[in-house]
Amino acid sequence: MYQEYWGLSEAPFDNVPDPGIYFRMHASVENAIAELLFAIEEGNECLALLIGGVGLGKTMALRVVLDKLEHFNRFLLEAAEAGQPALQRVGVCPILEPLGSEDLVGDSIGHRMEKAGSTRNVFTNSGIASVYEFSEGVPGLLIGSANSVSKQARQIG
Questions:
Q1: Mean pLDDT throughout 128-147?
Q2: Mutual angle of helices 58-68 and 27-42, in 10-degree steps
Q3: What are phi and psi for residue 102, nearest 5 degrees?
Q4: What's the pLDDT score for residue 83?
Q5: Quick one: which of 47, 75, 97, 145 could link to 89 by a disulfide (CB 3.0–4.6 Å)?
């Protein structure tokens, strides 16, 4: 198992959204979380949408929002009335985007490795560049490609 090889206490690149390993430097997700929290906390009775492609962090953002709203004692979801076009009530609609640079991808990988117990820098700059090129900054693809690289590096030794 590659976790043992790299001295990790857990897998850093599981493709399961875990708020405990959330990377807070993804500005697109941070802005979306702030907008969603604002809409919910203000209670302006508008529909809040979160839009983003596959792997951009929608599920993670919603889990972070729900974690922050545990203290709320009211309904968070409201059904649209029959016959009323729902889009007329959209008040918040953040759109998620990929991580925009190799540096952010490297920071994200480093953050996940640290959270998983790493005490050393496992990925080289060229490795991070390869992950960025393959994933195009999409967190879901970044996780998958970093996971593959970690496993392959373990096999090579």
A1: 90
A2: 40
A3: -60, -35
A4: 44
A5: 47
Residue 16's alpha-carbon distances to 56, 88, 109, 143, 153, in angstroms, are 13, 33, 15, 10, 22
Question: Distance (Å, rounded) from C-alpha 10 to C-alpha 130?
Answer: 23
Q: Could you write out the DSSP letters of every residue in the chain?
A: -HHHHHT-SS-TT-SS--GGG--TT-HHHHHHHHHHHHHHHHT---EE--B--TTSSHHHHHHHHHHHTTT--S----PPPTTS-GGGGEEE--B-----SHHHHHHHHHHHHHHTT--S--S-HHHHHHHHHHHTT-HHHHHHHHHHHHHHHHHH-
CB atoms within 10 A of CB 37: 16
Residue in the block written with tokens 């030794």 = 157
